[in-house]
Structure formats: structure tokens, C-alpha cells
Amino acid sequence: MERVLExxxxxxxxxxxxxxxxxxxxxxxxxxxxxxxxxxxxxxxALDHAIQAITNVASGQNxxxxxxxxxxxxxxxxxxxxxxxxxxxxxxxxxxSAMSAFGYQEGLRHGPSYD
Length: 115
Known about the structure:
Blueprint: E1 5-14, E2 20-30, E3 35-41, H1 44-58, E4 63-69, E5 72-77, H2 81-101, E6 105-110
Antiparallel strand pairs: 1-2, 1-6, 2-3, 3-5, 4-5
Helix pairs in contact: 1-2
């Protein structure tokens, strides 16, 4: 059985009383055959910003985006394993930067830094 690698980066907004509310999540999924970057955003504008950030990084390269619904999107990367890995890591950093620029803060579940 192949090992599946999966990391998540959650983004929240702070509420009164020290509470937080989950607003977005970036995920990295590697099943040994394909590498995907998933996006979940409760605000459509934030999702659009993250999609655009990834599209800018992946421009002209082997990336396919599928917008699943108003809150979810998934990027799949093609090419050699090294190409997929490099592009997916750049996409994750672009999406994370877009979430921070949108005003979201890092949540408790926060994967490794690829930069």
C-alpha cells in the first residue's frame, strides 16, 4: 500500500472572547501518483484570490484547476514527480500568501513551510 502524504493549513478570523472561526484551508495531497492542492474558502472572494495566486505561479505549466463549487477548488499537477512537487509547493505558498493578504490568520492546524 502506498503512503499518502497530506498536509493542511487552516486560516481563521479572531472573534470576541478569544474565539476563532475557520474561514479557509489549503491542503496538499500526494497519493504517490498525483499531487493536488485543494482550497476551501467560506468567502468566494478569498477563493478567487487564492485561485488567481496559484494560476499566476503555474502560468504556462502543467496545472489543471477544477472549481468544485462556490467554496472549493482543486489544482492537479502533471509532469515528473519532481516537477509536480516543485509546482505544488509553489502553489501552496502562493495560496497561503493570498489567505494572509486577505486578512486571515494562521489557525491551529498548520502544515510545514515550503519556502
